[in-house]
Design goal:
Layout lengths: L2 H9 L2 H16 L5 E4 L18 E14 L5 E14 L6 H18 L13 E8 L2 H6 L1 E14 L26 E3 L2 E3 L2
Parallel strand pairs: 1-2
Antiparallel strand pairs: 2-3, 3-5, 4-5, 6-7
Length: 193
C-alpha cells in the first residue's frame, strides 16, 4: 500500500472523522483550553510523559468499536466508544480537581446534547455517558488532576447500496418515466397486463 492510499484510508475513516468533529467542537466551546488533541488509547499517569502538564488540556481518544453491523441498505453501523481525558492544573483560585470535574461535566453535556457540528452522516445520541476521576501518584507529583468522560455513539459509514447512482433518472420506464412492478403500462396508461 502506497502512502497516498494509506493517507486516504485514514482521512476517510469514520472513527477518525468522529474524533476530529469532537475535537473541533471542544475547541469552539472551550477557547481558553489551548491543548485539545487526539490521544491514542487509555490515558493514565504514564501518559503524562507523552504530553505537557503545564496547562488545562483535553485529549480525545477513540477507545474502540465493540459492536458493528451492516444496516438494511448496506452501510456499516459502528458503536464507537469515545473517551475525553481532561487534564487540569491549579489556576489562581480555581483548584485543579474542581476545574477538571467542571470541564468534564461540560464535556459530558456536550456528548449528551450534540450532534457534532463537523460530522456528516447518520449519528446517534451519546449513550452510557460516564465521568470518572483518574487517581495516581504520578498525577499528584505533577500537580494535575485527570478526569475521564466516556460514552458510546453509533455512526454509519460507507455507501448506501440502494441509493440511485449518479446520473440515474429519478424514474425509469418509457411511458411518463414510471416504473411499475406487478402491472403493465401501455402508452402511459395502466393495463391489467
Amino acid at each position: 500500500m502506497k502512502f497516498d492510499q494509506l493517507k486516504a484510508l485514514v482521512d476517510n475513516s469514520g472513527t477518525t472523522k468522529l474524533r476530529d468533529a469532537i475535537i473541533a467542537d471542544v475547541r469552539t466551546v472551550f477557547p481558553y483550553i489551548k491543548t485539545v488533541e487526539p490521544y491514542g488509547g487509555q490515558f493514565s499517569g504514564e501518559g503524562l510523559k507523552r504530553v505537557s502538564a503545564s496547562q488545562h488540556a483535553v485529549y480525545v481518544s477513540i477507545m474502540g468499536v465493540p459492536n458493528s453491523a451492516t444496516s438494511g441498505h448496506g452501510k456499516l453501523s459502528l458503536a464507537v466508544t469515545v473517551s475525553l481525558f481532561v487534564l487540569a492544573t491549579n489556576v489562581k483560585d480555581v483548584p485543579r480537581d474542581d476545574a477538571a470535574l467542571a470541564i468534564a461535566e461540560a464535556c459530558a453535556g456536550m456528548a449528551h446534547m450534540r450532534r457534532w457540528n463537523n460530522w456528516i452522516g447518520p449519528l446517534s445520541f451519546a449513550q452510557s455517558v460516564k465521568i470518572a476521576r483518574v487517581n495516581s501518584q504520578a498525577l499528584d507529583v505533577k500537580g494535575v488532576s485527570l478526569v475521564a468522560v466516556s460514552w458510546s455513539q453509533n455512526i454509519e459509514i460507507g455507501a448506501d447500496h440502494f441509493a440511485r447512482p449518479e446520473g440515474w433518472p429519478e424514474t425509469m420506464g418509457a411511458a411518463g418515466g414510471a416504473a411499475v412492478v406487478g402491472n403493465a403500462m401501455l402508452d402511459g396508461e395502466p393495463t391489467d397486463g
